[in-house]
Amino acid sequence: MRGVLGGVLLILLWEGMARGFALPSYTLPAVSEILGSIWIQRASLISGGATTLLEAVVGYGLGTTIGIGLAVLITVLPWSRTALLPVVMAVNSVPVAAYSPLVLLWFGIGVSSKIVMVTLAVGFTVFLSALAGFDRVDRRSVDLLRSFGAGQAAVLWRLRLPAALPLIAAGMRVATVRSLIVAIVTEMLGANSGLGWIIYQAVVQIDFVQVWSAIFVASAISLAFFGLIGWIERRVIFWR
Amino acid sequence: MSASLSAPAMRATGVWRHTAPVLLGLGRLVLGLAIAAAVWEGAVLAFGIRPEYLPRLSAILSTIAATPEAYAAGFLRTLLETLLGFAAGVLVGVLNGVLFLRAPVLRDMLFPIFVVSQTIPVIAFGALVVLWFGNTLLAKAVIAFYLTFFPVTVNTLLGLQSVDPRQVALLRSFGANGRQILFRLLLPTALPQIFVALRLGSSLSLVGAIVGEWFGDTTGLGVILLQAMYTEQVTVMWAAILCAALLGTGFYALVSLAERWLVFWGAEQ
Predict the structure, then answer these.
(1) Are B238 and B55 in contact (CB under 8 A)?
(2) What is the pLDDT of residues A36-81, one digit of tens each?
């Protein structure tokens, strides 16, 4: 309840400040002005949002799959850890955003470069949390299962995965927000559609109400995505 | 409690206990880097990878060596933005944490807003921040700050809330005032949690600084990256990426080192 109150107070304060001090829209447009602009621009915002969401969701799916797959591989084949982990860590030591220009050169300014970037960002986040989760299992529990004749696959499926799921889920939740941010950032550097592209164009045209409209839509999408993954998580990990 | 026992004597034994593994790790790091460099160079030569995709490491290093001033200037500029934003983010984050602990009403009202603010693609604000603060170092530091303060706030609050109330009661019964309880008990107990956020914040603030530079600037690693993209100079781009990796890893290592020194009773992992 207090949270809602806080949100309402913030919006009132914002509206009051923008109206009261008659702030020019390049400093801070009023909330009502932004909402009005969203309604007028709804067609382009919806199609831009759809492109961005598509890039984020496809990249998210790929990144999650690769991240978990790699973590499983390292867990099942311990010798691959010494070979793979340093490479992954080295690639990960660079801030993801720094790869954007390179990926844009490699994959062009279409949708594919954004998907690659999102896959990269989501993959690292999920991989690191999945690996931490798989490693968390007590050595003695593994030995116990083994002594009952369980194979690698059974240990993974019955012991490691349930133990790792809460951590994997936490990583996946963080990754939702990250996937949209990375998609938008890459779109801002070079694209021909998407919310980031709308933001970039609006900045060039010095239309800051438009910038705010795109930011509002982007946050609404990322909140919804975050909420959806959180809801699925509560459904799947019932034992927490 | 243990923080208040940080007598010089304990520090002295702590020095060796913590320096030795650091030196060992450093040696292993150098060895690992040498192997990685050899593998990189060898793989590019062996598989005939075209320089548009992955130039040889030696080519990248010689690019840096050709104009070291440009890279050094960019490195320092980005470092400064990162550090400013990080410092401000840590300060505000810890203050927020303490404030939220003292005033639960404020916490209930502001915390959901903070959470929502972090699901917003903050980087979309970049253009606005540059407009508000001008095309200055400050604008980039503000973006780095925005990305840093939230994890620090959350973890400070978590750490402060994990303090055993009986310990607070004990200190109070000895006549400790609020400030003494905060500095002798609450903050030291929260320190391991805070450092988890600091390590995260160290990489986030670097991202903020680099992306902030994309919205217009003349020096910085982000600028080098962007210009190299426009002129399609892949080698220069890799050179900037290497510099960013160096900056990121160095900063992260520094924060981890500070953690070992300050949280000498054992860090949370």
Answers:
(1) yes
(2) 889 988 889 999 999 999 999 999 999 999 999 999 888 888 788 8
Minimum CA–CA partner of B127 in chain A: A203
d(CA A114, CA B109): 36
Cα B262 → chain centroid: 16
- Interface check B25 vs A, CB under 8 A: no
Q: Which CATH architecture group holds A31-236?
A: Orthogonal Bundle (1.10)
- State the Cα–Cα distance between residues A96 and A185, nearest whole angstrom: 11
What is the distance between the alpha carbons of residues B200 and A36, in angstroms, rounded to a whole number?
Answer: 38
| B206–A95 CB contact, under 8 Å | yes
CA atoms within 13 A on the CB side of B130: 20
pLDDT in tens, B243-258: 998 898 889 889 988 8
Can you give the pTM of this predicted structure? Answer: 0.80
Q: Which of B28, B67, B78 is nearest to B251 (CA)?
A: B78
Compute φ and ψ for B116, nearest 5 degrees.
Answer: -60, -40
CA dihedral B253, B259, B260, B262 (to 10 degrees): 140
Test B124 with A218 for CB contact under 8 angstroms.
Answer: yes
The answer to whether A109 contacts chain B (CB < 8 Å) is: no
Work out the average pLDDT over B185-213: 86
Q: What is the pLDDT of residue B268?
A: 47
A184/B109 Cβ within 8 A = no
- The answer to whether B244 and A98 are in contact (CB under 8 A) is yes
Q: Is B232 on the interface with A (CB under 8 A)?
A: yes
From CA B35, how far away is CA B55, in angstroms rounded? 17
Q: Predicted confidence band at B65 (pLDDT cuts at 50, 70, 90)? A: confident
Interface of B with A in 164-193 (CB under 8 A): none
CATH number for the domain whose boundaries are B2-6+70-262: 1.10.3720.10
pLDDT of B227 strictly over 70: yes
Q: Is B122 within 8 Å of A181 when comparing Cβ atoms?
A: yes
Only one residue has tokens 């975050």, namely A226
Q: Is residue A68 within 8 Å of A168, Cβ to Cβ?
A: yes
The residue-averaged pLDDT of A126-131 equals 89
pLDDT score at B17? 66
d(CA A194, CA A191): 7
Contact B231, B247 (CB under 8 A): no
Q: Enumerate the domain spans of chain B.
A: 2-6+70-262
pLDDT number for residue A122: 93
| Mean pLDDT score across all residues of chain A | 85
List chain A residues with CB under 8 Å of B206: 95
With beta carbons less than 8 A apart as the criterion, state whether A38 and A216 touch. yes
